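Translate structure to sequence.
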């Protein structure tokens, strides 16, 4: 039975899983959950993830939420090098994945909720939240930019789950105007991923098409 991934094609979190699964050659079945219709909050979906968030993976009896946990599960299942080529690399990959969740992606999510989510629901963005998120993103990006000055990837000399986790905020950054253009090494690394990881480029197209069509339908197109 194929591994099911529940999520919305416009979601940067689902993108982390679908792109990693493609790189690892893991066969998945995508189950569409329309987040803009609130489908992650139905009683049926809340049995899979009581937080009402996607993606969720179902592999037989195993139900997992949190994209990073899903990616680690899939990588271990197939023995993928995306978790690091050596034990030492593996800890570095985990370090950056935990860091990404707590110090990085959350501020991109906050910005998306303010700038896109609230507008979609007819509410006004709270500029003080956006300013706080931007300050935290800039502080983290200074360190990332220095880290990437002499490297092609976040850990070692190859793609890992750390790259995928840290790259996720680029999924919505053009729409939310995150200040990434101030950080040239970060921008060059993101372009490198798009140029060398076909699944990363393909899932960008998927996210853009989905979000742009939802926004156009809501009269929020550019
Ligand atoms: N920390 C979670 C974040 C999940 C998340 O924020 N998912 C968003 C889509 S990118 C969602 O499902 N939102 C639905 C909602 O808030 O109602 C992960 O990494 O999987």
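Result:
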């Amino acid at each position: 039975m194929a591994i099911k991934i529940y999520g919305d094609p416009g979601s940067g979190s689902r993108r982390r899983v679908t792109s990693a699964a493609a790189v690892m050659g893991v066969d998945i079945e995508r189950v569409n959950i329309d987040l803009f219709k609130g489908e992650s909050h139905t009683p049926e979906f809340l049995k899979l993830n009581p937080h009402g968030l996607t993606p969720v993976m179902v592999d037989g009896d195993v139900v997992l939420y949190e994209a990073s946990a899903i990616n680690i599960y899939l990588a271990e299942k197939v023995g993928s090098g995306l978790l690091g080529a050596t034990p030492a690399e593996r800890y570095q990959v985990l370090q950056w994945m935990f860091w990404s969740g707590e110090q990085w992606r959350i501020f991109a999510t906050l910005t998306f909720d303010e700038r896109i989510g609230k507008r979609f629901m007819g509410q006004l963005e709270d500029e003080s939240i956006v300013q706080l998120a931007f300050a935290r993103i800039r502080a983290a990006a200074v360190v990332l930019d220095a880290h990437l000055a002499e490297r092609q990837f976040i850990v070692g000399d190859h793609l890992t789950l750390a790259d995928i986790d840290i790259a996720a905020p680029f999924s919505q950054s053009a729409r939310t105007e995150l200040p990434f253009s101030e950080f040239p090494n970060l921008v060059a690394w993101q372009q490198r991923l798009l140029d060398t990881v076909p699944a990363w480029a393909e899932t960008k197209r998927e996210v853009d098409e989905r979000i742009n069509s939802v926004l156009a339908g809501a009269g929020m197109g550019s």
